[in-house]
Amino acid sequence: MIKFFRKIRQQLVYENNVTKYMRYAIGEIVLVVIGILIALSLNNWNEGRKGRVYENKALKEISVALKTDSIVNKGIQERVQKRDTAINNILSYLKTGATNADSMLIENLKDSNTGIKLSFNGGAYEALKSKGLEYISNDSLRNLIVVTYEFWLPRNEIFGDSGRKDYILNNIDQLHEKVTDLYIESNGGNNSIKESIILNSYEKREALMRLMNLQMELSESYRGLLHNQSRIINRVQTQIRLELEKFDH
What we know:
Elements: H1 2-96, H2 103-112, H3 123-131, H4 139-157, H5 167-179, E1 181-187, E2 190-196, H6 202-247
Antiparallel strand pairs: 1-2
Helix pairs in contact: 1-2, 1-3, 1-6, 4-6, 5-6
């Protein structure tokens, strides 16, 4: 009988030890799992923080690039204004009925043919694209930036003189040849080719008038493109500014 109770006691002690061991093991496992979860959370938080820091940096760089583009656009607008002034000067001259052109008219003719090249700085966007567009957390802003740099700005760029080979530029070249005469000027033994304009026929005066009308049409196209580009830049800058304000809160 004593042996029986001794065995029961031993069994109870054994089971108690097993229970303690199981509890200890479970506790260790729980602590390990909690530690892993905390580590993962800290890692995700750190990666998220790094992502937000880069997003802030990328948006600021794009904003600076757009600001530079806006300044360049203002310079291009001045070139267009220079074209328009020259065109109006020539049209006023034609109204006088004069036939012999002075040096001022020659200069106006050159200014009226000032080439315009629309461009944009896509370096900041390309850097973002290589790093990953998903860094821009705001979906609508990300889509706006992509459309701006992949479609709108490149579309405007091709309409500069270097990219346009349409009927307007072809006709301008042909009419310019009809209006101007070339001659050789000798200066100290050095010969150079110069242009002159003598409006001594109806055909030449008509060609010059048509030439100025086409130049005015081209200037109008430039002004429209510049206005469109400014509108796009302002829109993106406004959205970027609103997004950057969130980083301060």
